[in-house]
Amino acid sequence: MLLKKVLFALILLLTFSSNTAFAHVEKEEQKKAAALIKEAVDLMKNGNYEKSLVKSRLALSLALSSKDNNLIASAYNTIAANFDQLSEFDKAYLYYHKGLVYANKTNNDLLKNWLNNNLGNIYCFDKKQYEKGIYYYKKSLEFSTKSRDSSQIVFTKLNLTWAHFDIEQFDQGLPYLNYINKFHEKHGDSTTVVALNMLNGMYYSHKNDCDKAIFYFENAIKLGIEGDEKSDLSYSYHEYAEFLNKNGDYENAYKNLTIYNAITDQLNNEAKHNKSNIAGINLEIDEFKREIDKIESELKTKEHKFLHEQSRNKKIVIVLVAVLIMLFFLFYFYAQNVKLKHKNRLKDLRSKVQENTINATINGQELERKKIASFLHDNISALLSSAGMHLFAHISQNPTTSQEIIKTKAILEEAHDQVRNLSHELMPSLLARFGLFDALEDLCDKNSNSILNFKYISAVERTTRYDEDFEMKIYFIVMELLNNIIKHSDAIEAQLRLKENNDSLQIDIIDNGKGFDANKFQIVEGFGLSQITARLNNLQGNIDINSTLEVGTSIKIIVPIVHRV
Fold first, then answer.
1. Contact call for residues 200 and 184 (beta carbons, < 8 A)
2. Locate the Histidine kinase domain: which residues (predicted)?
3. Closest CA to 49 of 71, 95, 82
4. Which domains does the chain carry?
5. How many CB atoms lie within 10 A of CB 95?
6. Which residue of 36, 125, 346, 527 is 20 to 30 Å from 48, comparing CA positions?
7. Order of strands across the sheet that contains 552-560
8. 33 pLDDT exceeds 70?
9. Rounded CA gap, 189 and 199, in Å?
């Protein structure tokens, strides 16, 4: 025990000493990466995309080096957001997707919410693949709901409403719109109020409620002019122009459409201006991607090298511990194996003793049956027959016979019949005289009635004879199984099938009764199957029982044939 404690202490010491320096480096890198991401986000908000991308690049390198999935995902998200602002949507999609891969390895539901929402924006507004966009919006809603971020829930539901309304799915979008109308004042902000009024205008336009539609469209335009949401303002003019055109006000529709085009041109010019200010970045976009891939490759190489060095430092201790553990388990398994073998030997011995006891009891019973049947048939039955013959002779010689003599004759005949029947039950005469197959067919006939019919099918010649003791054992096994069907099965049809197969006798007994659960030991014992199994084991045979409740039972017995010597 002391040795084990020392070994574990050595492992912990090696692990701690080799990891402490590395952990310290990782912590410093994480701090630097987090600070660079914050700087990059601030630069992006101020429109300085070139510097933001440079900072994001450095942050991603440090995040990959420290293997911090949160920071890696955040760095990718920041890079993608820069490309999004520069209208480089394919590259934005690429890095949003990379960021989501790493975010999904974390518990950061806020980050997952933003990345899914941003991918939804790319699909809906840029790729016009609304089905995929709605999928990502719903994933975003799942994470914002999980994190209980009320403002994000409102924001995501607004995007879902917009996506559904854009493809004329007003019924699907309405529940989200109702939620936003109810909670926007509490959890929304000024950046989404223009879009909210526009969406209400779109809905009432769809419902042909012109007054409400005009109110919300004009309110959206008013708030858009007062604020700084040019993109939402342009969409508001566009949707309002479509509404006016639909209702025949072509002049105002044209005016609103003209304003929409003017704002859209202005936004496009601003985007071009932003791109022209970062021409150098545009030239480096593809190189930047290759650089990131190179960073990831270098990181894997460094990680592999570190793990190799760490493994070499621990090698001696691990080998020693492994040898000790192996020796311990070998000793443990050896001891358990010895114990198990001893236990199994005792179990087998008990089982053998029990089986021998059962077989001895059964053999004794069968021997006694045979003796009693022989005694009844050869002695008692003969004496009763002799007495009957003398009485018959007396009656023949004396025409006037008393009533007592006649009654005595009747009693002797009844006694003779009962003794004969008892003798046949103990040892059927058919079994002794004609063999197993005639006896079993007769057994089926005797047990058949108007309620239960036993059908006998044999592929073996009825004249075939086996060893007398073998025939007797098989007969009583089958008789016991047929009695079980009569007593317990509630069957209306049963079959007994016999055939020889590779010097073995196969017996199939099938009924369509109520069945039973063969796994219940009490039921099996109640049916006397343990004694039958013991008999078959003594004959080197086996029994297979399949029973289904309310369907029936099938029993298959295969036993090696013992031929007459």
1. no
2. 477-563
3. 82
4. 431-560 (3.30.565.10)
5. 27
6. 125
7. 453-458, 493-501, 504-511, 552-560, 542-548
8. yes
9. 16
